[in-house]
Known about the structure:
By secondary structure, the protein is of the alpha/beta class.
Amino acid sequence: MAVTMLSDGYLDVSFELLDGIKAAKAEALLEKRGVPPLPRMNINAYVVETADRTILIDSGAGGINGWGGRLQVALAAAGIDPLQIDTILLTHAHPDHIGGLAGPLQTPVFRNVQQLFVHERELAFWRDEGIYSNAPDGFRPFFDVARNAFNAYGEKLVPFHQEAILPGIQTVNLFGHTPGHTGYLLGDGSDSLLIWGDIVHFPHIQVAQPEVTIAFDSDSAQAAHTRKQLLDRVATDKLSISGMHFNFPTAGSVQREGNAYILNYDLWSPVV
Length: 272
Ligand SMILES: [Zn+2]
């Protein structure tokens, strides 16, 4: 299995979206880790090449609202033809993950995709008419983006609830950020990599302080609980991890530091 991490670009938000930490403390935590103290979230996507599939995990934001939109350029730079991609795995259906999947009018960007895997709870949430009509006006466009992408792939959608979906790939329930938020564990043993989706939006802040939540969480208490449990697991198992909002398109590991955790990125270079 070969995993290529791609940068879709970034989106700028505000530390005001974080609950449980003051902006000044958030800036200090980032500065301490040598990261610019800005409320800027990188957006990553992944291509996994196996013996018989070329898999895309999430698709970046597709330039929606000026967010990200670099995925196609990143694929070209990595020598990956979008038409090679036959399988898509989604961590969840927020616009910065699903925005690159489809153009207007339900037009699929990845035309040779045969299967698009999404947790059945995630699909049901975004397609629920009652939830949609009760959603705040500002949130309803998120539903429109998700529905446009889902409809673009039509019968290629594979709603799942089980752990084993493909050879060498296990799903990990990480509910809370969204109702069907899912991580993907690639490989096994010491060679495995867990792509943990949006367990953190500001990696150094939320690994150090897992109780800090973000306004995008659909259930912030559950999101914080899931984060704490997973940090414990990946620190104990010394699991290699990566995430859509890591500061670089890289992997890393989590270490216990007293009662808290610390995220250490693997050495990273833009030159492969
Ligand atoms: Zn996200």
